[in-house]
Amino acid sequence: ERALQLLELGGNVEEDYIQIAQCFEATRQRCCRLEQDRRRAREQLARVEAERTALEVKLKHARNQVEVEMKKRHRAEAELEKQERKLQLVVESLMRESRGSRVLSREQRSILSALAGQHCGAALASGRRSSAVDESCQSLLSHSDISYDRTEDDV
To answer: Which positions are tagged coiled coil (predicted)?
Structure first.
């Protein structure tokens, strides 16, 4: 009778061992899937980091280009102002001479008056245009809007 009980108990134990072995196999398969997912995630991370690095390089070049273009624009605006001042001085000088000596004809004086008027209008218009450009550039290209770590420049 006791041997019979052991055999019956042994049958249940064997089923339990089979069930435990099946659980271990399921766990092993799950671990394998997770390992594959980890490898794929690492590969994707490497690709994304490489892309990020390339984009950071492009951003750095773009920032440098913007800086160069801004310097060119400032130099051009300074040159424009200088030329406008020269033109204004020439117009004022000719207007003074024409009043005192009457050497210039009425047509020439009207042309000078028109130039003086256009110069003032152009100066006002260029002032408006310049500030509009400044405002738009500041809103689009503000360095404070873009997070940029300069310590990576050495890389």
So the answer is: 38-97
Q: What domain count does the chain have?
A: 1
Q: What integer pLDDT is reported at residue 38 of this predicted model?
A: 98
d(CA 150, CA 85): 41
Question: pLDDT band at 2, cuts 50/70/90?
Answer: low
Sequence-separated contacts (24+) of 149-153 with Cβ below 8 Å: 152/56, 153/60
Q: By residue range, what is the domain housing residue 90? A: 1-119
Q: How many helices (H) and strands (E) does the chain have?
A: 2, 0
Count other C-beta atoms under 10 Å from residue 92's C-beta.
13
89 has a pLDDT exceeding 60: yes
Instruction: Give yes or no for a contact between 87 and 119, defined as CB atoms under 8 angstroms apart.
Output: yes
